[in-house]
Amino acid sequence: MEPKLFCQSCTMPIDKLADRGTEKDGSKSSEYCKYCYQNGALINPNMTFEEIKALVITQMKKMNLPPGIVEKSVKSLPYLKRWRTVHEKEPL
Fold it and tell me: How far apart are CA 11 and CA 30, in angstroms?
């Protein structure tokens, strides 16, 4: 089954509640994963786009995911909520 929800920072599927980050009130985030977002805030707010891109590639390769899946995730990064404003003035 194809994932429906993806972290708006790193592309990780977050359909499972256990994979979601938390809001300030302890509820589960509907936008971010547990690795990017805790207690209502991004864990690494100063991370650059190039850093997240490298991290996504590294983590997905460690999981032995097919190159096509890795490429699709990396290409979708600029469209995610966290990175959209970074790329608003750049052609995609």
Answer: 13
Please report whether residue 61 resides in a domain. yes
pLDDT of residue 87: 61
Question: Does residue 50 lie within any of the structural domains?
Answer: yes
What range does the domain containing 44 cover? 17-87
Q: Where are the beta strands (DSSP E) in the chain?
A: 20-22, 28-33, 37-38, 41-42
Q: Answer yes or no: is 53 within a domain.
A: yes
What is the pLDDT confidence band of residue 42, given thresholds at 50, 70 and 90?
very high
Q: Of 55, 56, 60, 29, which is closest to residue 42 (Cα–Cα)?
A: 29
Check pLDDT > 80 for residue 92.
no
